[in-house]
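For this section, I looked closely at a protein sequence along with its fold in token form, which I now present.
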Amino acid sequence: MPAAALAPFYATPAARLNLRARAGLGLACLGAAGAPLAARWIPDLTARLICGVLIAAGLLALCLACARLAPLRQFRALACALFIFAVVQVLNNTIPHYVATYVLGESPTDANPLASTVSGSVVIQLVETAVAILVLARLTGLDLASLYLRQRPGGRWLLGSIAVFVAVYALIATSPLRPGSPIQQVLPTGANLTFQRVLALTPALLVMALSNGFQEELLFRGLFLQRYTPFFGPGLANVLQAAVFTVAHVNVSYTPMLLVFLVAVVFPLGLLGGFLMRASRGVVVPSILHGAFDIQIYLGFLASVP
């Protein structure tokens, strides 16, 4: 994103951006956050890596420009967040692949984009989450408050999220006993999945769902919400991060009803995650609820491998 793209905002304090300026900045943020995500759609790993590195380098240049040029200084925190996000995407597009191939001796399958065994799937998911956490910790200077990691959630919020998680798990775990249930139409898990098989997969399933929930809440809400708010206010900031979150799921292959999934599940989940992040003043509650929504997806992955 060239510095000239931000020209309409040079002389305008962030708190006083007009509607046109906010719209332009919002589109720029959507494009800058969407570009590293779009790089994942490139089939060739080398080309994907080169593209991701170039995007991250461009955002780093923007971040440095915001630090050095007075007219751009108000955008520094936002530009740095976009750069950090791009770095995480580059690493998560490459490191898990090499871990799976050269350490575990596995590779993704058509039905499981992580690995070819249950144990391998768990390892790759944890690697992705660890990469995101380490990069965030390093490049944000352990600024826990800005990532919603400083405060503990209130008891009611925490108990409520756990109750929802348990209820969703129970509903999904018993879905093999109800063939043709609506959730299996949107996120099918395999015709031969039995209740006993679900129970056997449960330890791996819970680790993966909660791990991914924590990772994505940190990346999409924790990293961006407080950086967007000074420019857009809390409402529009929440909509913007939910839009980026939706873009991240545009190329998923685990649903035959992609548009329904994006509009009726992903975007509302992004809005809900942002609301809960602010309301509970932390990442724990939205991570648990996010993990609940991921249970069916990861069950599908795990049910397809030995």
